[in-house]
Design brief:
The chain is α/β, with parallel strands linked by helices. Helices cover 35% and strands 18% of the residues. It has helices spanning 14-29, 127-136, 149-160, 184-197, 209-221, 237-242, 252-256, 274-281, 292-304, 322-326, 331-334, 337-343, 359-381, 401-412, 417-431, 511-532; strands at residues 53-61, 70-78, 81-85, 96-99, 104-107, 109-114, 119-120, 123-124, 139-144, 168-173, 201-205, 225-229, 247-249, 308-310, 449-452, 468-473, 476-477, 491-496, 499-504, 507-510. Helix 2 (127-136) packs antiparallel against helix 16 (511-532), helix 9 packs across helix 13 and helix 14 (401-412) packs across helix 15 (417-431). The termini are far apart. The structure holds zinc ion.
């Protein structure tokens, strides 16, 4: 740890050196209190405006590999890259400066499973709405696993050129299946077609074993990474892991690999009926014939063959608590009417299957989550790499909000918040093959950074774009285990937290501004949507 440059003494003026000793004391007592004295600062950044040199001053740093936070430290960004961490030469003058005293800086989040959407159920929805919410939740890189390819190509290019305010986009598409995928030869042809089209990777679902062999063999030949949503199929996670898929999404295929036989579907089961499909999916990990030894063996194989697991816990969570999911407080201001309509139970819309949803179905899902979470924990303990994705835009999960909920659920699965942050940053970078450039607060890495109001290791929910409740004493944010006498009127709850700045490629995006724009998009769309009903 000490060999890294970031912990070398701060070489700013003596005043700043003194601060370095004062701030930790203040932070221990009260994380929100900035020091009284400070060096003359450059002007703060302007939302979405690129500067050559950006300085983040006095930040506590979460590095991204599960090491504990350190600081306060300065982070110098130049030409979109992290130029220095900790020690910034005196003659290095910033064009803009963020005062991060009392704040934490962590790497930008890699959302490993999402979908680019500019409509829901055929009704338009502003693409910027989705991009604003993901940036506001701290996603600086998103792996799209299925969208309109022609649009995606343009969005990806515009994001790279910074003409679109959006995270960095990686496109893992299904276009390989465009020409038909019912023979091994067609599958191979489709994979080559997708490569020529310029995809970053391939997304697949359950396949017959012979087709799967062709798919992964050709993907390897074309040097394309792959992601699979494998569910209730001839092939299970075991097949995908054996043949070298990059990542397994969701949960189904892993449990399918652990059954002695098949899932006990009742005779009326119809896979095209989503009430049936998602109802029974919630029984998968609690099947009487789920063999724990087989489950461990499947996990072992995934670890051995370096298969990533992007579980998307948050996308199914409405199934275990639908009333909560239908009444999230941020819907009031931030739920676009197009999405609101799409979420409404309706068998025509994918994931809107809550028609007569029962308490028994919820209980089964809750129990399934317990086994699923145990499997995730076992996988990670054995050396498997878990990543964060939210798959939002379905099932009452809203872009970005789902991402922070995913992190909360990973903590519930038994991981330390520092491990969860690692999953969301350096693990995600590894899954997309960018671990040499992304996912750590490291000199030379791409300057994708989040400036968080508070310490996400203490409370992951601080990353919620809506912010969260924090305890204040006499107007200052304090830890809620502080020694406050019951009844003390100086103790109050306020909305705090949130990310202040999401920095992508060194460009600072001001999260309160993004959220204001998002709120405006929603309030402007509502009267028109109401008329159409
Ligand atoms: Zn998905």
């Amino acid at each position: 740890m000490r060999s890294r440059p970031r912990l070398r003494p701060i070489v700013f003026a003596g005043l700043v050196l003194a601060l370095a000793f004062v701030v930790p004391v203040l932070m221990a007592a009260d994380q929100a209190a900035p020091p009284a004295a400070k060096a003359p600062a450059a002007k703060p950044p302007v939302h979405a405006k690129q500067v050559k040199r950006l300085l983040i001053r006095n930040a506590m740093v979460i590095y991204g590999n599960a090491e504990p936070p350190f600081g306060p430290a300065n982070i110098a960004v130049e030409d979109g890259l992290i130029a220095r961490v900790g020690a910034v030469p005196r003659d290095w003058v910033a064009d803009a400066e963020i005062d991060a005293a009392g704040k934490y800086v962590m790497p930008g989040i890699v959302n490993g499973h999402m979908h680019l959407q500019d409509e829901r159920g055929g009704i338009p929805q502003p693409f910027q709405y989705e991009m604003n919410l993901y940036l506001a939740a701290g996603a600086t890189t998103i792996r799209d696993v299925g969208a309109d390819w022609e649009k995606t190509k343009k969005w990806r290019a515009d994001s790279n050129a910074h003409t679109l305010i959006a995270p960095r986009i990686l496109a893992y598409e299904r276009i390989w299946a465009a020409k038909g995928s019912h023979t091994p030869a067609l599958v191979r042809e489709g994979v080559r077609f997708a490569k020529a089209e310029g995809v970053d990777g391939l997304k697949a679902s359950g396949m017959d074993r012979d087709l799967l062999e062709a798919f992964l063999d050709e993907a390897h030949k074309q040097s394309l990474r792959t992601a699979t949503h494998s569910a209730v199929d001839e092939s299970t996670a075991k097949d995908w892991a054996e043949l070298g898929v990059t990542s397994i999404e969701h949960f189904y295929g892993v449990a399918d690999a652990a059954l002695d036989g098949i899932q006990d579907f009742p005779p009326e089961h119809n896979s095209s009926n989503e009430v049936h499909r998602f109802g029974r999916a919630g029984e998968l990990y609690i099947q009487h014939n789920l063999n724990r030894e087989k489950l461990s063996a499947a996990l072992d194989l995934m670890v051995k063959n370096r298969v990533f697991w992007c579980p998307t816990l948050s996308i199914y969570v409405a199934s275990r608590d639908v009333i909560r999911a239908q009444n999230l407080p941020w819907y009031k201001e931030y739920l676009h009417p197009t999405m609101e309509r799409y979420f409404t139970p309706d068998m025509r819309n994918h994931g809107s299957y809550f028609l007569g949803w029962t308490s028994t179905q919820e209980v089964r899902w809750k129990k399934t989550y317990q086994v699923w979470m145990d499997a995730l924990k076992e996988f990670a303990v054995k050396g498997g790499v878990v990543t964060v994705g939210d798959d939002a835009g379905f099932i009452y999960s809203l872009y970005g909000f789902g991402q922070v909920h995913e992190m909360e659920l990973l903590e519930e699965a038994g991981f330390h918040p520092l491990e969860v942050i690692k999953m969301a940053t350096s693990n995600g970078a590894k899954m997309i093959g960018m671990e040499d450039r992304l996912g750590r607060v490291r000199q030379g890495f791409i300057a994708d950074l989040l400036v968080v109001n508070g310490n996400p290791v203490e409370n992951l929910r601080l990353l919620n774009p809506y912010g969260t409740d924090v305890l204040t004493y006499d107007g200052k944010v304090v830890n809620n285990y502080s020694a406050i006498v019951p009844g003390d009127p100086k103790a109050k709850v306020v909305r705090g937290g949130g990310i202040e700045w999401t920095i992508k490629d060194g460009i600072p995006y001001h999260v309160p501004t993004l959220m204001k724009e998002t709120k405006d998009m929603v309030s402007q769309a509502r009267p028109e949507a109401a008329k159409k009903r």
